[in-house]
Design brief:
With 218 residues, the chain is α+β, with helices and mostly antiparallel strands. It contains seven helices and six strands; from the N terminus they run αααββααβαββαβ. The termini are far apart. The model has no long low-confidence stretch (mean pLDDT 78). Its main location: membrane.
Length: 218
């Protein structure tokens, strides 16, 4: 029994690592170690839930619900996922990573319960969604970028027109007005967009506009 339980923990760590590698390669907030720990931890919780109270069951009319700990993992992992969601003004990032952690916890619970085939299949499906659907989405709608522009107010309309000419889909935008000691006004723009162009192409087009001082592309 102990050998099989140890194998469950090892398998959970391996499956969590597969998802974590994909997230790490994409430079996401939760990477390899986080996903391994989440999957191993949920597996151990499930093992405790199923086998950890065998020595007291049947004594003094004690009855336990083996699903209670698993239910707490499902809700508790939400706190960890919430920590990966970042709100930068009106831009929300990290939702996919949070969902990935939630699924990783589910895989750990499944492996901990002994349903190995379902756990492996769930891992494969998760990787297909994270990587395969991402590539399909990029081909159909383009890559998602965050633009950070520093420009003069007069050049803002020209910058937006340039993006429209490139057939770039602007998803969200926000503008912050900055004034220095000389009362010169500059705008800081944050733009979430999707484009089929490379970042270098977008950078060169926008930097050619008079009044655009600085561009960061993430």
């Amino acid at each position: 029994m102990n050998t099989e339980l140890l194998l469950r923990i090892a398998l959970a760590g391996a499956l969590g690592a597969l998802i974590g590698v994909e997230r790490q390669l994409r430079a996401k907030e939760a990477g390899l170690r986080t996903h391994i720990l989440v999957c191993i931890g949920s597996t151990m919780f499930m093992i405790v839930s199923k086998y950890g109270f065998g020595d007291i069951l049947g004594q003094h009319n004690i009855a336990l619900d083996p699903s209670r700990i698993a239910a707490q993992v499902v809700s508790g992992i939400g706190f960890l996922g919430a920590g990966t969601i970042m709100l930068n003004k009106q831009f929300v990032r990290g939702l996919t990573t949070a969902a990935g952690l939630w699924v990783t916890a589910a895989i750990g619970l499944i492996v901990g319960s002994g349903l190995y085939v379902i756990g492996i299949f769930g891992t494969i499906m998760t990787l297909l969604v994270l990587e395969g659907i991402r590539q399909l989405s990029t081909r159909l709608m383009g890559q998602r970028y965050m633009l950070m522009l520093s420009l003069t107010p007069a050049s803002m309309d020209t910058a937006m027109q340039t993006l429209r000419k490139l057939r770039i889909r602007v998803m969200r935008s926000s503008v912050t007005r900055n004034e220095n000691e000389n009362k010169d006004c500059k705008l800081s723009m944050e733009i979430m967009l999707r484009a089929k162009y490379k970042p270098a192409d977008i950078y060169s087009q926008l930097m050619s506009i008079d009044g655009v001082h600085k561009i960061e592309i993430r």
